[in-house]
Design brief:
With 62 residues, this protein is α+β, with helices and mostly antiparallel strands. The protein has one domain. Helices cover 16% and strands 21% of the residues. The protein is built from two helices and three strands. The chain has a three-stranded mixed β-sheet, with no helix packed on it. The protein is elongated.
Length: 62
């Protein structure tokens, strides 16, 4: 058994989820119970580049 999270044990504000920051500015967390989308409370933050919506066919046509 792993035991309690060290941050939980000392009452530190934190989240166990992953913060996803999209290139479009949308921010969400993988933990459905997360109430704070601040990067400071997320030890893992993924920055996602904006998707290039042009398809291979569109590129060949240009």
């Amino acid at each position: 058994m792993r035991g309690e999270c060290p941050d939980c044990a000392v009452g530190l504000a934190h989240c166990h989820g992953t913060l996803l920051v999209a290139g479009t500015g949308v921010v969400e967390c993988s933990d459905p119970e997360c109430e704070d989308l601040d990067e400071a409370v997320h030890p893992l933050v993924l920055r996602l580049a904006a998707a290039d919506r042009a398809t291979a066919r569109d590129r060949r046509a240009s």
